[in-house]
Write a structure and sequence with these properties.
about 130 residues, alpha+beta, Arc Repressor Mutant, subunit A, 2 domains, three-stranded antiparallel beta sheet, three-stranded mixed beta sheet, binds zinc ion
């Protein structure tokens, strides 16, 4: 994606086209696996200060540019793209060797039987195994 496309995306989402946001978008697009806050901070240490990074992530998530993933490691990870929502769920893959987290393809609707009186709002699927790099 060219810089112009990032600017368009930010504009569409009603976000200001700051240099930091463009840098952050470029970083998300250049890396295949999900990033924790610490990963991002380490990668962009010379370009973004902590609080700006924190705020940018929050506004990206709110705008649906990125989504957060709870892989049960205790660290939230972020990946580019719309969050998995009802009707458009996708699974996440956690590599047990390198600990990287990847967004997987769309999940087929799951038919899970829940007891009477329970209502499912969202399904979060985590697959565990070994990634193609390991
Ligand atoms: Zn791996
Ligand atoms: Zn994802």
């Amino acid at each position: 994606m060219k810089e112009e496309s990032y600017k368009q995306l930010l504009e569409q989402k009603g976000l200001k086209k700051t240099k930091v946001r463009i840098t952050l978008l470029q970083h998300f697009m250049s890396i295949e696996h999900a990033q924790s806050y610490n990963d991002l901070q380490a990668a962009l240490v010379n370009e973004v200060d902590k609080s700006t990074l924190y705020r940018s992530l929050a506004s990206f998530e709110q705008a649906g540019i990125i989504h957060s993933i709870n892989d049960h490691s205790g660290l939230t990870k972020y990946a580019f793209g719309q969050p998995p929502s009802q009707g458009n769920e996708h699974a996440h893959f956690v590599c047990e060797q390198c600990k990287m987290v990847y967004c997987m393809g769309k999940l087929a609707p799951l038919q899970l039987n829940v007891p009477k009186g329970f209502k499912t709002n969202k399904v979060q699927a985590i697959l565990k195994g070994v990634c193609s790099d390991c």
